[in-house]
Amino acid sequence: MKIECSTCNKMYDVPDERLPEKQKFSFPCPACKGMITVDLTKKNQGSPSGGASKWTEKELPKGEALKKLILRKVNELPAMPQTILKARQLLSSDKSSFEQLAQVLKSDQAIASRLLKLANSTYYGMRGKISSLQHASVVLGFGTLKEIIMMAGSSSMLSGTLPGYGLDTEDLWQHSLGTAFSAKSIAERISPELGEDAFVAGLIHDCGKLVLDEPILERKEMFTRLMEAGNESFLNAEKNILGFDHAEIAYALCSKWGVPETLGAAVRYHHMPASSRGDKMTYIIHMADALAMMSGLGAGIDGLAYEMDDQTMTLLKFKEDDIPEVMEEMVDAVMKVAGSES
Amino acid sequence: MDATSVRCFRSAVVSSGILKIENIGAGVGVILFNSERKIAAGLHIMAPTARGTNVKNPIMYADTAIPYILDELKKNGAGPPFSVAIAGGAGLLGSRSGSDIGRRIVEAVGLALKSSGLVPKIDKTGGTQIRAMLLDVDAGKIKVV
Q1: With an 8 Å Cβ cutoff, are A320 and B97 in contact?
Q2: What is the pTM of this model?
Q3: Are the beta carbons of A295 and B8 separated by less than 8 Å?
Q4: What are the pLDDT digits (tens) for B40-87?
Q5: Which of A86, A156, A238, B97 is the one with CA 20 to 30 A from A218?
Q6: Using beta carbons and an 8 Å cutoff, which residues of B are at the interface with A?
């Protein structure tokens, strides 16, 4: 099992057989001495062994019972750190000061230290030069700081393994980063005012996978059978087998986290933008997600098994010749940012 | 054993160890191997043709990447014959515009190889799955999944 220290973000690979079964335990981090707490009473936090289902296919909950179980998991998932929500509110208000922002960020040392690591990544061209939050805000500007705060707040949530989706450590994080950077890049070409929000929506668009991973793992054979024909979308497979798709669950999480409705809607319809009644942000996230999938960044068993809306390129005034350039920028950004955290 | 990983828009020439091209989506991974000299090249191409544009990165386009890598192999003392494997070119479902770029990259790679007198021995392209290629240069064994 991979265990991450929430204070210094160091990862430890602990053999499953050395872990006490179904117990909650704590131990000091060998690197920073901060306490690491692992709760194995909640199945979702563990099960990294990727173990097969304890249930037979017949015994697995179905229909309403399964829906209830999944919705309960939505409520069990940790809330978006309050630090991030408060910091974003302050950054959006003209009346707030840097002192207020620094106060909020300093209250969460894990996020503050992750923020500094990201600010010093080669992507922002300031490697090793940013020494404090104040320095970051002066050198990088509030717009970039918003972007970094969002990444610092979501990286640990999105970096774990998701065996149901066949995603290894960092895979979902890399895909989310790729979608966020492409969304920003596409928005800047057609509607620069949407750039910041597009980045945030891109970052969290697949958070529903955190909830659906375990039910998918338990029904892996059913998914394999349905996907074998090669013309079924993974979204339909989720709907048919689980009753929900990951975009619906992501929307439920966005509502729980207090994410603005405009972003929540883009997350909800990122695989079927036509249902958004022409919402530009939704089409941006749809295109950005497609580019991240096409680049192969952090892809799992679902691969590219999703439908692409044919109106997308026209609506976004996106030319086929633009694709390689945006993808190259995206891959470069992901490598530089993800590399800064390891 | 040393492993060299080739990511999107990049290439590598190696003479020992493992050569890997992972996470191949719509792009096309190409491995050229001269088994006699034990020299291999791997590249991960992401677009069909440069169409006369100012090319900053020759590995991006199929029509510039293949001549570029053959030249690199030549500089490393390796000429034909080469064993060639290609993989990737995946596409999203039910799409016509933009997202069938994978199919067009595969076609362009095929043409570029053909004009250099090369034919892939292994061709695992198309579909919706992400692929990976792995060549053990010392043993001369290749695996494409």
Answers
A1: yes
A2: 0.82
A3: yes
A4: 999 999 999 987 777 889 999 999 999 999 999 999 999 999 999 999
A5: A156
A6: 7-9, 22-27, 46-47, 51, 53, 57, 60-61, 88, 90-99, 101-102, 127-130
